[in-house]
Amino acid sequence: MTASCGAEPLHLLVNGQAQSIEGVPREATLLHLLRNDLGLNGPKYGCGLGQCGACTVHVDGVAARSCVIPARGVAGRSITTLEGLGARGDWNPVQAAFEDAQAAQCGYCLNGMVMQAAALLARDPDASDARIRSELSGNLCRCGTHIEILDAVQRAAARMRAHPAP
Q1: DSSP 8-state code for residue 49
Q2: Is residue 108 helix, strand or coil?
Q3: What whole-number distance in Å separates Cα of residue 97 and Cα of residue 155?
Q4: Please, what is the end-to-end C-alpha distance for the chain in angstroms?
Q5: Which of 8, 57, 68, 99 is most deeply buried (CB count within 10 A of its CB)?
């Protein structure tokens, strides 16, 4: 990263691991830090305005649009990306349901859909179809897998109700 760097390293917890990043410019977004400095490619750059959802991450467990969050604004906070939800063989229930329902076509919106759905179901595993649709309405999908995405979130909710987290 370049000019106008903050003198102090930025400390945050990303996917359960403490990170200390030097030379983070004041204007850097959380998305740029995650992708460029930490090599996490789950969150995607879509619109740069916080409107499409492709860049969604969890900040202290709350779904947030990383393209509009100043990186220095999350100092000391816990950030979870798609990579931090789970890994192949140990998927989060939402990730597993998206795979089972074949809810991805191009996959560009997948990060935002999964992260938004995971945040919703962590708060409300009994979310109604209307609530799920409302929660995901700010995430854009241009491929037309909306029915499969809804099916995936419903499957994940059923799994989470059947096997509640400790």
Answers
A1: S
A2: coil
A3: 6
A4: 41
A5: 57
**What token pair was written down for 119?**
């945040």
Give the CATH fold of the 10-84 domain: Ubiquitin-like (UB roll) (3.10.20)
Q: Of 159, 46, 36, which Cα lies nearest the Cα of 107?
A: 46
From residue 104, give the alpha-carbon distance in Å to each of 34, 41, 85, 111.
23, 16, 17, 10
Q: What pLDDT is recorded for position 74? A: 97
Q: Record the pTM.
A: 0.92
Q: Which CATH number fits domain 86-162: 2.60.120.230, 1.10.150.120, 1.10.1130.10, 1.10.10.10?
A: 1.10.150.120
Mean pLDDT in order along the chain per 10 residues (166 residues): 63 97 95 97 96 97 98 97 93 95 90 97 95 95 89 95 82
Query: Position 160: which residue type?
Result: M
**Which amino acid makes up residue 76?**
G
Pairing, β 56-59 against β 62-65 = antiparallel
